[in-house]
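Per your request, structure below.
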């Protein structure tokens, strides 16, 4: 059988005859090189590169990419040299093949290290020529499709790598179709049982829901027709992996059953122009009530990978949630193929946003690579970028800056410019002076205040999220002179001591702390603080305490270290348990040296209570000032105007609402989750009592 024929037909649809001929030469070369080699499935080896080339040809990749795909394993498996490829097929094809081979060749002692280094190579190869990574992704996709003939343990290892590394990269490049298939194949190989169970359940549910789906579909279509808007409506099916991931995410929050995840109905409306998209959204919001806080405009502000669409969630018939996506035909193609759409739809001057975004990202990666020491550090940094869950904020001039979730003003400052980050001293959020550790949320305007000669603060490491900020701060710390580090450490410690000088601390206490921390000179401690290795607040606490107490035996009342609420960025309040004044609390030290307050009964601290060096007994000062965040759940009967009533009672009590989430349980009841800012436990108790007065309220509880 002449394997080239199928591929030839594909290629003829978009390449001219002379180009197809060149590709055929590459095919013959690869076939002869792999002659006699077999895959573990028993097929001749050449079937694999041909399949990889087919995948890429379906994306209309150029001649050189297809040729390189056909020969992608000849250096690795057939001892062909890149010089040979160079003289036969030219420099471009040779360097593509070499690029792909480099990604596979490296062997490393530990799995984790191997992953990190391979990953780094992959990213770097991508920066040089995107096509190398497209070949590698297609290679992986075909290997996943034919995974069955390998040993089970090998299957699981490759599946894990596919889900952790290849699928996120496909996602980052906006290649949704590729990503979904990699994830599904990976999930099926990693957890065959779970995959089968979910797949069966989806099939059953599909049967039950057929009528509802077609009803909703018809209602939307009729409405668009009567408004004379041209668009097509399609139902969206959730994939087993996306259901599995959602179930995992929700695990531990509430009792999460399959039906809850499945009870969300997905629809996509595809229109001809951007303008129609907004008009369609208006009609949908008129047809069904939108769920507050769920609308996202990715058309005006595309995602990091170039994805564009309008998203909204609607309350459908019988209280069912309907997730809709509205986008144009071009956006749809871009959403499916991302960067590859560049080759697939060469339509005049239509810019491929995915490609522009991908190139921007790569430029940042290059810079990042220069600043990070080893592969593991690099992979940690890049991971953040690969799982985008972003917020959009504005500069005072109205420019949009995109940041990952939980980003702080420090991240924002570094996103603007490294110099801005390095010399940042304070910030204003929506014109109000705010802590540099504040988590930013969508739509805020952020202004960074800088001072000449200001330096990055090592304690920032405990709350920055972007790789750029992290690597710049680390870079600064690494290059810090010992003298400067000591100076910085002294400044931080004196601040933690409540602006007292270190000289005012008694010699006796200094000697005791030196003994406790096993240091010879006090300078060494200051040095460590300056480098961000030790938290200044811990040393301050030890210096202030009179006696040498075993913290694990300490009762709350005796805790010598008191929280005033004015420590600002020196202290973080744990987001798992949201401690407020009046709660029993403990202090812990994060891996990056930050000081974090938890509630004593928080499940996240129960396992570290035996580590003296990670756990500090603390209590609240008598008069604590400030607003503290706390998460409240309110179960209500689903009636009109309920949300408005609860929110007004909250604000009437002088409580600021930071965030609201609405979770529809069964159509009859809702759970409203509020993140609010409160003074103390008494304040909270008063509020809870007032909310309970409503007859539609079933239960009010504070989150643990
Ligand atoms: Mn291969």
């Amino acid at each position: 059988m002449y394997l080239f024929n199928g591929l030839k037909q594909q290629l003829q649809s978009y390449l001219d005859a002379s180009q197809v001929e060149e590709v055929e030469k590459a095919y013959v070369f690869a076939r002869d090189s792999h002659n006699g080699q077999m895959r573990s499935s028993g097929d001749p080896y050449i079937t694999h590169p041909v399949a990889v080339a087919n995948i890429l040809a379906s994306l209309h990749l150029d001649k050189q990419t297809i040729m390189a795909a056909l020969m992608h394993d000849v250096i690795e498996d057939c001892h062909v040299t890149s010089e040979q490829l160079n003289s036969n097929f030219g420099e471009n094809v040779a360097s593509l093949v070499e690029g792909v081979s480099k990604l596979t060749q490296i062997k490393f002692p530990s799995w984790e290290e191997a992953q990190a280094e391979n990953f780094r190579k992959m990213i770097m190869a991508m920066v040089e020529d995107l096509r190398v990574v497209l070949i590698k992704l297609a290679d992986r996709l075909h290997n996943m499709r034919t995974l069955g003939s390998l040993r089970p343990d090998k299957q699981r290892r490759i599946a894990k790598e596919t889900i952790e590394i290849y699928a996120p990269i496909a996602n980052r490049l906006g290649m949704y179709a590729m990503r979904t298939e990699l994830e599904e194949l990976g999930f099926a190989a990693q957890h065959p049982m779970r995959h089968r169970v979910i797949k069966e359940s989806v099939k059953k549910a599909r049967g039950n829901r057929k009528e509802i789906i077609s009803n909703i579909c018809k209602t939307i279509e009729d409405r668009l027709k009567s408004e004379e808007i041209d668009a097509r409506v399609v139902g969206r099916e959730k994939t087993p992996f996306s259901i599995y991931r959602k179930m995992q995410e929700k695990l531990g929050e509430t009792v999460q059953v399959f039906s809850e995840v499945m009870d969300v109905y997905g629809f996509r409306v595809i229109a001809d122009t951007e303008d129609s998209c907004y008009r369609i959204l208006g009609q949908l919001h008129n047809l069904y009530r939108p769920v507050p806080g769920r609308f996202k405009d990715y058309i005006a502000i595309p995602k990091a990978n170039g994805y564009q669409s309008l998203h909204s969630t609607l309350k459908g018939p019988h209280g069912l949630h309907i997730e809709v996506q509205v986008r144009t035909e071009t956006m749809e193609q871009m959403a499916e193929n991302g960067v590859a759409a560049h080759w697939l739809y060469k339509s005049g001057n239509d810019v491929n946003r995915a490609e522009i975004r991908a190139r921007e990202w790569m430029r940042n990666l290059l810079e990042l690579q220069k600043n990070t020491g080893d592969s593991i550090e690099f992979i940690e940094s890049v991971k953040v970028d690969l799982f985008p869950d972003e917020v959009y904020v504005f500069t005072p001039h109205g420019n949009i800056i995109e940041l990952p979730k939980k980003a702080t003003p420090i991240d924002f400052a570094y996103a603007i410019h490294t110099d801005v980050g390095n010399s940042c001293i304070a910030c204003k959020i929506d014109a109000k002076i705010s802590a540099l550790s504040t988590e930013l949320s969508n739509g805020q305007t952020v202004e960074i205040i800088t001072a000449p000669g200001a330096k990055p603060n090592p304690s920032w490491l405990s709350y920055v999220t972007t790789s750029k900020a992290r690597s710049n701060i680390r870079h600064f710390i690494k290059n810090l002179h010992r003298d400067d580090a000591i100076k910085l450490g002294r400044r931080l410690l004196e601040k933690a001591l409540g602006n007292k000088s270190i000289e005012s601390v008694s010699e006796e206490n200094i000697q005791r702390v030196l003994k406790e921390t096993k240091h010879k000179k006090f300078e060494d401690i200051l040095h460590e603080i300056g480098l961000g290795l030790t938290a200044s607040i811990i040393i301050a606490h030890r210096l202030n305490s009179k006696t040498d107490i075993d913290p694990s035996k300490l009762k709350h009342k005796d805790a010598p270290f008191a929280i005033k609420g004015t420590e600002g960025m020196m202290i973080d309040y744990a987001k798992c348990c949201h401690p407020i004044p009046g709660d029993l609390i403990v202090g812990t030290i994060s891996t990056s040296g930050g000081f974090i307050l938890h509630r004593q009964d928080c499940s996240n601290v129960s396992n570290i209570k035996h580590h003296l060096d990670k756990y500090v007994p603390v209590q609240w000062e008598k008069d604590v000032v400030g607003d503290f965040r706390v998460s409240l759940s309110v179960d209500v009967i689903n009636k009109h105007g309920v949300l408005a009533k609860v929110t007004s009672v909250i604000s009437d009590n002088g409580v600021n609402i930071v965030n609201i989430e609405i979770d529809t349980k069964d159509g009859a009841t809702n759970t409203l989750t509020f993140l609010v800012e409160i003074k103390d436990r008494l304040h909270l108790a008063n509020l809870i009592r007032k909310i309970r007065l409503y007859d539609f309220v079933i239960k009010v509880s504070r989150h643990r």
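The chain has a mean pLDDT of 80.

Regards,
D.
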